[in-house]
Amino acid sequence: MKPNSVDEQSGMLKILDAGLINSFNQTVTRLDHYSPKSIFSKEGSESAFFGTQNELLPDSLTIKYFSVEENKFYQLNAKLPLEKIHNSLEDKEFETDLKIEIQSGGKISLKIEQPESEKSGSKLILSFQAKEITGTLKMLVDGGRLNEEDYDLSLLRRVSDYSDIITQKYVWKIKIEIEGSEKILESLAYTFERESIGPENASLENALLRNIPESAAVEWGNEQHYHSFCTFDGQEILDAFKDLDKIKSNEPAVITFKIFKNAFPKVQISKADKMIKLKNINPTTPIKMSYIKCPIE
């Protein structure tokens, strides 16, 4: 199951529920336990997937999802045309893949593929129109936190804030200030979808168009190395970026990370002459890094 879009942002979906139903033996196949729930249209991204079944083809499809860019919830409950599916198979002995492609506006396409067939390729079976439904922020974030340290997205005010914090990008960089003459060894950040921001592509100290960071970490020190970490309040940092974006200036937003050896780090964001203090929702003093030396034989 994958968005059918050439644009990464407009093709981002949050799958809330999905099932393939077989009425004959009264079975429902849900998304696999390891399937991603947030899926993207960008090339190389994962699709949501159901587990492999050695049973009868499903005769019904149910799906409920949230289009992040559209800021809309959709639901589809539909009967599948089993006769048409069977007639479209090149060889009924071959493994058959059902593909569900989701487009903007609630349009959904059902296709089949038989990878073992010489005429392998997608065949369109039927197109559906999902119904727009009323949704809540709770539907989006229930069970969504991987760790207690992560920001709880249920604290956001609106569903639109959820969309914005996931998709909106701003030009920003990080400025690191360390007490004393300690060296900065590495800095990185994570989005609210827990994707890494740098340093693979570019240092966070360079101003680039990026997603809003959920957290930032710095490894620093000379002989002894330390790790300092900050988790942002989602609503606060979202509002701060929106506020600073109103300033008519070509300057980037600057997140200043002030690190102290025996105290909590302090964080602020600024642009031009405006500065906004940011909370660190899980403050800790610097963590001393330890390394195990392996003997050379």
Which of globular, elongated, flat, extended, rod-shaped describes the shape? elongated
Please, what is the oligomeric state? single chain
Taking the alpha carbons of the first and last residues, their distance comes to 51 Å
Beta-strand percentage range = 35-45%
Unreliable sequence segments = 5-10
The structural class is mainly beta
Number of DSSP helical runs: 4
What does this structure look like?
There is one protein chain. This protein is mainly beta. 11% of the residues lie in helices and 39% in strands. The protein contains 4 helices and 20 strands. The protein has helices at residues 82-88, 137-141, 159-167, 234-245; strands at residues 2-3, 13-22, 27-30, 38-39, 60-67, 72-79, 97-102, 107-113, 123-129, 131-133, 169-178, 184-191, 196-197, 208-211, 213-221, 225-231, 253-259, 266-271, 274-278, 287-288. Strands 2, 3, 4, 5, 6 and 10 form a 6-stranded antiparallel sheet that branches. It has a 5-stranded mixed sheet with strand order 14-11-17-18-19. A hairpin with a 4-residue loop joins strand 7 (97-102) and strand 8 (107-113). The longest helix has 12 residues, at 234-245. It is elongated. Mean pLDDT is 84; it is low at 5-10.
Question: Can you give keywords for this protein?
Answer:
297 residues, mainly beta, six-stranded antiparallel beta sheet, five-stranded mixed beta sheet, elongated
Briefly summarize what is shown.
This protein is mainly beta. Helices cover 11% and strands 39% of the residues.
